Amino acid sequence: MSTPRIAAIHDLSCFGRCSLTIALPVLSAMGCQCCPLPTALLSAHTGFPGNTFLDLTAEMGRIADHWTAMDLQFDAIYSGFLGSADQVDTVARFFNTFKKSSTAVIVDPVMGDHGTAILSFREGMSFGTTVESDCAPLNEMVEAVLSAAPHVHVLRDPTRGGLAATLNEIASQSNVGILLEESTVPVRPEVRSACEFLGLDPLYVANEGKMIVIVPEDEADAALAAMRASPYGENAARIGRVTDDSDVPVGMVEMVTLMGGRRTVDWLAGEQLPRIC
Q1: pTM for this predicted structure
Q2: Exposed end of the chain (fewer CB within 10 Å): N or C?
Q3: Phi, psi (5° rounding) for residue 133?
Q4: Torsion of Cα atoms, 74 then 97 then 9 then 76, to 10°
């Protein structure tokens, strides 16, 4: 099997264990060829006040054009921190150029733990049960998925804005529709209860130890089995599929509800609480 090639669209923080500083060595140690497409150069990540910031939007386009001329192909595309609003269009063009079709959507695992735990801690709230953060090292599970499903299209972490915002980004940037099944989206009862009490939608609550995987239909079962074999992915579920525009409009995310109807899973309106990063 050829070496998996992954395009990592993220910032490079010169200090701080995050973004490309971590993605490059981890993916390389897993036997993947990591091809960084840096969005910005920071003296330190955004958790350090006074950090310097160099916007690399213009250079991103030139790098992508060169890769197109080289006829590069990628087994996965990892998109993280974007340094400016203009980069949304740049990343959308990148997905349009390098994306693949005929895909299934898999998410790992239950949604909303981290954001709910952070909100409980910050505001001193008690929900009558323990809600713990879902922070977890996913490198071994990622390696297992790439081995089981060598044609992975997208790997994403549903952090800020949760599952809903991340899937909307993917649908918009890739010019596809995504259809979810509400009954299959895993949310812990304690997280769902806390969100109902606070008037929040768990689909928009931040996660840390979760992973969205988009793979070809014929590799979905293998990818799901690899995720469930990990202690961090035992609740992994297949929650939907990528569609053509005859089912869900391009750039949109829709959900089949528990009642059998459909609703639009839109972009987040306003700022989701708790704010993370």
Answers
A1: 0.54
A2: N
A3: -65, 150
A4: -30
Given 28, 63, 98, the domain boundary residue is: 98
- Residue 191 tokens read as 């997280």
- Closest by CA position to 173, among listed 20, 18, 58, 9: 9
Q: Are residues 79 and 124 in the same domain?
A: no
Q: Which residue in this structure is represented by tokens 């809600």?
A: 131
- Domain that includes residue 12, residue range: 1-98
Which phi and psi angles does 76 have, rounded to 5°?
-155, 155
Closest by alpha carbon to 205, among 86, 112, 66? 112
| Three-class secondary structure of residue 78 per DSSP | strand
Render pLDDT for 60-72 as a digit per residue (tens, 0 to 9). 999 999 999 998 8
Measured CA distances, 81 to 120, 156, 236, 246 (Å): 26, 11, 25, 32
Which residue shows structure tokens 């391009």?
A: 250
Report the Cα 168 to chain-centroid distance in Å. 10
At 165-177, the pLDDT tens digits run: 899 999 998 999 9
**Among 213, 189, 201, CA closest to 263:** 201
Cα–Cα nearest to 164, from 233, 247, 235, 107: 107
Model confidence over 96-113: pLDDT tens digits? 788 765 322 233 344 445
Which two structure tokens, joined as six digits, stand for 145?
């998925």
- 107 sits in the region (left: phi over 0; alpha: psi -120 to 50; else beta) called beta
212, two tokens: 């969205």
Which positions ≥6 away from 134 have C-beta within 8 Å? 110, 113, 114, 117, 207, 208, 209, 210
Q: For residue 38, what is the domain's CATH number?
A: 3.40.1190.20
